[in-house]
Design a protein that fits this description.
Elements lengths: L1 H10 L16 H11 L8 E2 L2 H7 L2 E6 L9 H10 L3 H4 L3 E4 L3 H13 L3 E6 L4 H9 L3 E5 L3 H15 L2 E2 L6 H17 L5 E5 L4 H13 L4 E7 L4 H8 L21 H10 E7 L1 H15 L5 H12 L1 H4 L3 E6 L14
Parallel strand pairs: 2-10, 3-4, 3-6, 4-5, 7-8, 7-10, 8-9
Antiparallel strand pairs: 1-2
Helix pairs in contact: 2-4, 2-9, 4-6, 4-9, 6-7, 9-10, 10-12, 13-14
């Protein structure tokens, strides 16, 4: 696997994003370019294992720990690729986005490193820990109501006022290429994976995972994990077209947003299945991971383990990559606290 990646990297001279207008234009060369661009600003995060979880499930699990990432989440990869890929002219007015938290703080981090403003629209119900992180990185917050409709309407006003470059949380080829670097690292570190399981909300991480795996390890099955109470991706997958819920309610706050056309391209073409877990199953998987892996992670990150535990017959005997997407949790509002 390493030799194949090295060979491809040597072949990349200058693959620009300017010709990329949609997901179907993305190539693995864009992923390799993103790795070079973002390397000074992100971590190559560790992979952890648990003999207890392996024995319980009857499989080998490899947890890619993006909760140890800069800004505490995988989204810093896509944010840095977008911010540092801007021309000086395009970066003048800064960047802007709408996000429930991790993309907002990741874009704030990236913009701060480049020395440009970052304007973010966040639901008023977003975890305070994520709002504090945005402010700490220099981001400027405008609050909205906790619905996709409100987010997009308030954002339109902010962008019109600031003239900032829009970096969508997931429906942006620059972001997808950046997120794809996570699975590229995983495939370098772990040989012989049969499956990769990652959370799905808007689909940026799943899309990046599909982009990487379909190019260098097409036999790997990609499974998306989603809260049952925000199961629009699962319903979209089964119906063959995007179904968008406006304001789902789930403990997995990072997975409330709907698919868009760029992420739907990857979900519809490369995902093996979209599996769901109940709120109780998500919370129990989160608690189990805290207990056994000894790491801080968000409820959204527990959804993959929840669906693996729920569908052990599907995953038994496999080598499974599990992407732990972030660790920006409000410690005063843990979901098992009464």
């Amino acid at each position: 696997m390493n030799a194949q990646l090295d060979k491809t990297l040597d072949a990349v001279k200058c693959v620009g994003m300017e010709s990329v207008v949609g997901a179907s234009d993305l190539t693995f060369e864009h992923v390799l370019q993103a790795r070079e661009r973002i390397a000074p600003y992100v971590h190559n995060t560790p992979i952890l294992t648990s003999s207890y979880l392996n024995d319980r499930i009857g499989a080998e699990l490899f947890f890619k720990c993006e909760n140890f990432q800069k800004a505490g989440a995988f989204k810093v990869r896509g944010a840095c690729n977008a911010v540092f890929g801007l021309s000086d002219e395009d970066a003048k007015q800064g960047v802007a986005t709408h996000s429930s938290g991790n993309h907002a703080l990741s874009l704030s981090y990236a913009a701060g490193r480049r020395g440009i403003p970052c304007h973010v629209v966040m639901p008023r119900t977003a975890p305070q820990a994520k709002k504090d992180a945005v402010i700490g990185y220099g981001g400027l917050i405008t609050e909205c109501e906790p619905s996709t409709t409100s987010r997009e309407a308030v954002f339109a006003e902010v962008q019109a006022t600031t003239g900032a470059e829009f970096v969508h949380p997931y429906n942006d080829p620059r972001v997808i290429a950046g997120q794809a670097t996570c699975s590229a690292e995983m495939l370098e570190a772990v040989d012989g994976l049969d499956s990769i399981v990652a959370p799905i909300g808007g689909g940026g991480m799943i899309s990046g995972t599909c982009l990487t795996a379909s190019n260098i390890a097409p036999n790997i099955e990609i499974f998306a994990a989603e809260p049952l109470q925000a199961d629009d991706a699962a319903r979209s997958f089964r119906s063959g077209h995007i179904i968008a819920d406006d304001a789902p309610v789930t403990v997995a706050d990072g997975l409330k947003v709907p698919l868009k056309e760029n992420t739907w391209h990857f979900v519809s073409h490369f995902v093996a299945d979209v599996m769901t877990a109940s709120e109780d199953e998500i919370v129990e998987a989160m608690k189990l991971t805290w207990q056994r892996l000894k790491i801080v992670m968000e409820p959204s990150c527990a959804v993959p383990l929840a669906v693996i535990l729920k569908n052990q017959d599907v995953f038994r005997g496999r080598r499974i990559g599990v992407i732990v997407t972030g660790g920006n949790v409000d410690l005063d509002r843990l979901p098992w606290m009464k």
